[in-house]
Amino acid sequence: KMSSSIQIKSKSSVQKIKTSPLPCSPQAAVKPQPKPSDKLNPKTIDPFGAHTRPPSTFAAIYAKGGIPCRLMHGSVKHKLQWECLPETVPFDPLLVILAEGLRETKHPYTFVSKEGFKELLMVEGATEKTIPLLPRLVPALKAVLAHSDDEVFGRGLDALVQLSAVVGPSLNDHLKHLLTNLSRRLMNKKFKEKITVALQKLEQYGGKVS
C-alpha cells in the first residue's frame, strides 16, 4: 500500500510539472540541467551514433519550454506567438540565448531564434536592456558570423545590423571582434553587396567613431 501511494504521488507530481504554465520570468529561460541518470541510461546509447547527437543548448531549452514564444504556421507567412508580451520578458538571459540560437540549422529553431531576436529588440526600452548584455551578445554573434553555413551567416549579419540600430555607439568598442569574420566573406560575390550595406549601416548607427 505504501509503495502504491508513493507511485500515485510521484505520478501526480509529474503531471503538475507537465501542465503548469510557463511563467514569464528569468527562471523560465534558464539552461536545463541534465540529470545524472540521463548519462547512465543505456537506452540513450546508440552504437551507430546517427541519432545520438545531443540537441544543441538552444534546442534543449526550446523543448523544455524555456523560450516563451512558439512558431505559428500561417498560410502565407509564419509568425511568432509569445506566451506573454515581449515587453515583459527578461532580456537576460533570453536575448543571449536567442543570439546563440542563430547558429541553428534546423526548423523551427532557425525561425524562432531569428524572429525572437528581432522582435525583442523592437520592444520599448530595448536599448537600456540590451547594452549591459553586449559583452555576452558579441561573442554569440561572432560565432554565428564564423559559421560555415551561408544562411546562418546571413542571419548573423541581419542580427548585427539590428543590434547596432538599437544600441548605437555602444557597439563600437566591440566591432573589432566582429569585423574579421565580415572581411572573410567580403571576397564572396554572394555576400559582397550585403556586407557593404551592413558596414554602411554600422557606420551610420555608430557615428564617426565607428
Automatic annotation (TrEMBL):
Residues 1-50 are annotated as: Disordered. Residues 1-20 have a biased composition (Low complexity). It holds the Pfam family ParcG. InterPro entries: ARM-like, ARM-type_fold, Parkin_co-regulated_protein. SUPFAM superfamilies: ARM repeat. This is PACRL protein. It comes from Geococcyx californianus (Greater roadrunner). The gene is Pacrgl.
